[in-house]
Amino acid sequence: MENKPPVIAVAGPTASGKSDLALKLARCLGGEIVCMDSMQIYRRMDIGTAKPTAQEQALVPHHMLDVADPTEAYAVADYAVAAEHVIDHAANTLRKGEAFPSPPITWTDRISSSIVNSFFYPVCVHAKRFYATDACVSCGQCAHVCPMENIHIKNGKPVWGKHCTHCMACICRCPREAIEYGARSRGKPRYICPKS
Length: 196
Description:
Layout: H1 18-29, E1 33-34, H2 54-59, E2 62-63, H3 76-96, H4 107-124, E3 130-132, H5 141-145, E4 151-154, E5 157-160, H6 169-173, E6 179-181
Parallel strand pairs: 1-2
Antiparallel strand pairs: 3-6, 4-5
């Protein structure tokens, strides 16, 4: 049987810290990152996609970012073929004991990722609209599942802090469906991955 280097998959809900964890793992283990985000594959879609910054990309080689234009048809099959090539190349590099090349970083990269991410998250991603309805039974499940430890129970109701990433775990995991996000979540089905 062929001796293949391990491939570690980091998966989870939106804005749960996958990119940060992947970066730490890749730096610690001497690996590379193959992006699987459905929006980060598109060029010029940097706002709201939380693409790795130019500084982060300089620390560890990143692949499958900015590989398609938003106007072109790009199917999962196209992605799979391209990603397989990238993974095979990274595995061969590891097998040979060679160093990974550092990607070039332009001044525009540094400015756009830094300004956009510094503006977008503080302004657009916050917990102000989350609330618990009268159906809340103070079970604390929302606080338990919050990956950012951003929720605590106060006077029998959940209270959200300032570190929300909009992962929606609190909404989806509430056994009473008592948590809402403004009017946007009212009456909408909750989703829990059957394998989680």
